[in-house]
Amino acid sequence: VKILATADWQMDMKGGNLNQAARQYLSDARVETIEKIINLAKEENVAAILAAGDLFEYPSISPEVTSSVAKVLQRSKVPIHAIPGNHDLYGKSSVWRTPQFREIKHFHLHNEKDAVEISEGVTLHSIPVKNKYDTDDQDQLLEDVSDEDGIHIVMAHAHDRDAASFGGHEDDDCKLPIRSSNVLDKGYSLLILGHWHSWREVVENRVLYPGTHEQTKFGERDAGYVAIIEVPEDGSDPRIDKIEVGKIRWAIEDFDCTGRQLPDDLTDFVRNLSVDDKIEFLKLNLTGEVDAESLAAEIPDAIAACGTLVRHLDVSTDGL
């Protein structure tokens, strides 16, 4: 079977400390990238799209975002299977209960733990988040399928205890633990996880966080991807292809001002990032030694000029 795996769209997010224009640009890009995912699934002829939670930033979101996402998903020819995450828990007033989503015939929300056949001989075992403060290992909810026929895939939204870290969530109250080694020991071929926003194969070809489809903030590494996965009938290692879909490029860069011709050198540096590397959202850390005149006039002039070269610019002068 061939599937597309994605997670953590975080639709209706406010865009952190971005300026207003950049927030709107990011919001529009997140919808466009969902459409790109839908088209990719059709081109790749996948059997299903698996969306592992936190598709929305909140359980109840704006009508505008609800409609924009639903319109894109309505155009899909591929069945979509999704679970609620810790951000978009299922409930009476949640986005999942709106008419826009209830009427998408090929969209299947698994708001209870279940097992469904998504293709002949292929069973999807879904574990939705029911309580964001749950501390019980989610792998304990799974039956052993080692002696069962067919391919068995698990989709969950959780922190993998077998990974070296919690993916930046170490201090969160929301732990949602799972132990991928126990999942694989129970005979499952593949574990698709949401919760971390960066792409990560915890176990090569077997346990994957596809990450968010569009980066959500500065500092996220390896975001903006989905996975096309082929799972062999004989239970051997799946093949995972990492496909870039994200539209916006983010970067954090340091610039040493010592001995530089300001403002020109700094402006040229940012221009090269925007033109050559296609950076649109830039966080710039200025370091080094400059005289009082540069600090009072040339640095502010350079920052003002650089702000026209990218869609969003954060500048720190703490290192000067």
Describe the structure.
- The protein has 320 residues and is an alpha/beta fold.
- 23% of the residues lie in helices and 26% in strands.
- The strands form 4 sheets. A 6-stranded mixed sheet has the order 4-3-2-1-13-14, with helices on one face.
- Strand 13 and strand 14 form a beta hairpin.
- 36% of the residues are buried.
- The model has no long low-confidence stretch (mean pLDDT 93).
Q: Topology of this structure?
A:
Blueprint: E1 2-6, H1 20-43, E2 48-51, H2 63-74, E3 80-82, H3 99-102, E4 107-109, E5 114-119, E6 122-127, E7 151-157, E8 159-160, E9 177-178, H4 180-185, E10 190-194, E11 200-203, E12 207-209, E13 225-230, E14 239-244, E15 250-256, H5 264-276, E16 281-287, H6 292-306, E17 312-319
Parallel strand pairs: 1-2, 2-3, 3-4, 6-7, 7-10, 8-9, 10-12, 15-16, 16-17
Antiparallel strand pairs: 1-13, 5-6, 11-12, 13-14
Helix pairs in contact: 1-2, 5-6
Oligomeric state of this protein:
single chain
Rg over alpha carbons: 22 Å
Strand content: 25-35%
What percent of the residues sit in helical stretches (DSSP H or I)? Answer: 10-25%
How many beta strands in the DSSP annotation? 17
**Amino-to-carboxy terminus distance:** 56 Å
**Inertia-based shape:** elongated
- Average pLDDT works out at 93
The unreliable regions are none
Q: How can the largest sheet be summarized? A: 6 strands, mixed
- Structural class, from secondary structure content? alpha/beta
The helix-strand sequence is: EHEHEHEEEEEEHEEEEEEHEHE
